[in-house]
Structures are given as structure tokens and as C-alpha cells.
Design a protein that fits this description.
Length: 273
């Protein structure tokens, strides 16, 4: 498989993947003297599950933060839905249909699961407080629509039984699932997952993998995720970008990447010339 293909492709499990949704072109990101990303290019196609993997400090989080608009690279271009994206704030990126979860859970711990998931709908709440006061009907209709969508997400991720529970009381694996629910509540076109399995036990990882696959299948959501655990990612992803020391050292199907000598060396800790 070529990573320069413009059109989509059929996955090994027979799913149809569309054209290019996002393209990173020659991205370089520096923090003072540290080059976190060096001249990396790759694309994300409509409907695929795309992983970015690499050892510690490879630059995965930095790349996710470039995609989500948190960092603006010094060099390179970000293309989204066929247009070059100007530098924009993360909330503007979110308004373009990109939602994310965080490596360290970022939920409102004192609030219920339902209220946390509702915050994912903020971009859809068009009426402000003044409008709500004078235009009650419209605000109510909006509230009902948002609520219906959130309930659908809650059912889908099987968290009905904890919808009233304060997040602080939940075990780690469930918190991660609530974070996924909140991101999904935004009905994103592109969903970014920052180490969705980090800190999970085997059973929780299996659950999370299943939910990620189901989200992709049921909602048609394109998913980009970063992980440093190779195993889980290989089962889940259609294509994988491998980073090491800020550079791209591999890009292809899980099989292609698994057999790439540079990738094997990076994971075995072979020293660099
Ligand atoms: N805000 C920052 N300021 C300075 N240096 C940074 C910053 N963020 C990341 N770096 C550096 O950039 C490099 C890449 O870090 P990054 O967190 O993107 O890697 P990673 O692959 O996500 O690592 P991990 O798997 O450990 O989370 C590292 O050398 C890191 O120290």
C-alpha cells in the first residue's frame, strides 16, 4: 500500500476507506532548542483508524497537539477537508469537527457522568442566556436535541447505570470511557484519542478497543490515536505512523510496520548513528 494515494482503499477486514480527510505536510515543531517533530508528513483518510506510535519522547503527543490546534508548528502545513488550515485556537479546531480525549483524564470530577458528557455538546448550544430568556421555545428545542444525542452516546458506551454518579467515584477505566463519551457527544468528524489504554488492565483495554471499533463502525467517525503500546494498536488500526526521536520511521499497515527494520530497532532500543 502506498501512503501517497489520493483516493481511499479497502481495509484487510473489508471496510471501505474514503479520500484524504487530513494531511500533515512537512511538520516541524520546536520548543526552544528541542526539536519535538522533524519534517513529518502523513495523512488521515475518511473513516479509517489511524495510529501514531513510538517510544517515550518520540513526539506523539506533540503531533496530536498540532492536529488539535494546541501547538502551531514552526514549519509545515496542516490540511483539513481539502483546505490549508490557518493557525487557529483549539476551540476553533473543535468547531471544525475535531474532538479529543486527554492522556491524563480531564473531566469535571465533582459533576455527574451525564453533566460531563453534556459539556461535549457546548459547540451545539447556539442560543445564549439572553436568547434563552426571550426565546424559550428555541432554547428548549435545542436542549431536547442535545439531550437526545447525549443519551444515544450514553447508551452506546453502556454507561447508563452510572449516568447520575459523580465522576470522582468511578474507577479509572470507566472514567476513560466517560471521556470518550464526552468527545463523542460533540459528534466529531475526526476523533483524537491520546493514549486511550494508558494505565488500564487487560480487560479494560479489551473493552476500550471494542468501543473504539464500534464508534468507528456505528458513527463512521475517523479516529486518530496515539499509543506507545504496540500490541493493542496493531489489532485496532488500519494504518500506523511510527515516530522515533521526532522523525517518522515507518508508515503503513500494521503488518508493514511490524516488519519494518527501523521500527524493530527503535522498539528494541538499538542506538542511532
Ligand atoms: N512543552 C514542551 N516544552 C519543551 N519540550 C517539550 C514540550 N513538550 C514536549 N517536549 C519535548 O519534545 C519531545 C517529544 O515529546 P512528546 O511528549 O511529544 O513525546 P511522546 O512521544 O508523546 O512521549 P510519551 O510517550 O512519553 O508521552 C521530548 O523530547 C519532550 O521532552
Amino acid at each position: 500500500m502506498s501512503d501517497t494515494m489520493e483516493e481511499g482503499y479497502i481495509t484487510e477486514d473489508g471496510r471501505k476507506i474514503g479520500g484524504t480527510l487530513m494531511e500533515m505536510k512537512n511538520i516541524t515543531l520546536r520548543f526552544g532548542g528541542v526539536k519535538a517533530i522533524t519534517d513529518i508528513s502523513f495523512d488521515i483518510k475518511e473513516g479509517e483508524i489511524r495510529a501514531i506510535i513510538g517510544p517515550n519522547g518520540a513526539g506523539k503527543s506533540s503531533m496530536l497537539n498540532v492536529i488539535s490546534g494546541f501547538y502551531v508548528p514552526q514549519e509545515g502545513e496542516v490540511w483539513y477537508k481539502g483546505a490549508k488550515r490557518p493557525p487557529m485556537k483549539p476551540y476553533q479546531v473543535a468547531q471544525q469537527g475535531i474532538a479529543r480525549t486527554f492522556q491524563n483524564i480531564a473531566l469535571f470530577e465533582g459533576m455527574s457522568v451525564l453533566d460531563n458528557v453534556m459539556t461535549g455538546r457546548l459547540n451545539y448550544m447556539k442560543t445564549n442566556m439572553f436568547q434563552q430568556a426571550i426565546w424559550k421555545g428555541k432554547a428548549e428545542k435545542e436542549e431536547v436535541e442535545n439531550r437526545e444525542f447525549v443519551e444515544k452516546v450514553i447508551d452506546f458506551l453502556e454507561i447508563q447505570s452510572i449516568r447520575k454518579t459523580p465522576v470522582a467515584r468511578l474507577p479509572y477505566g470507566l472514567k476513560k470511557r466517560v471521556e470518550l463519551a464526552r468527545a463523542l457527544a460533540a459528534a466529531p468528524h475526526l476523533l483524537l484519542l491520546d493514549e486511550p489504554m494508558a494505565g488500564m488492565n487487560v480487560e479494560e483495554k479489551e473493552d476500550m478497543s471494542r468501543f473504539i471499533l464500534d464508534v468507528n463502525d456505528e458513527f463512521g467517525t475517523t479516529i486518530a490515536l496515539i499509543e506507545h503500546d504496540m500490541g493493542v494498536v496493531m489489532d485496532l488500526s488500519d494504518r500506523v505512523v511510527v515516530m522515533d526521536y521526532g522523525k517518522k520511521i515507518g508508515d503503513g499497515t500494521p503488518d508493514e510496520v511490524r516488519n519494518n527494520q527501523d521500527v524493530i530497532d527503535a522498539y528494541l532500543g538499538v542506538s542511532h548513528d
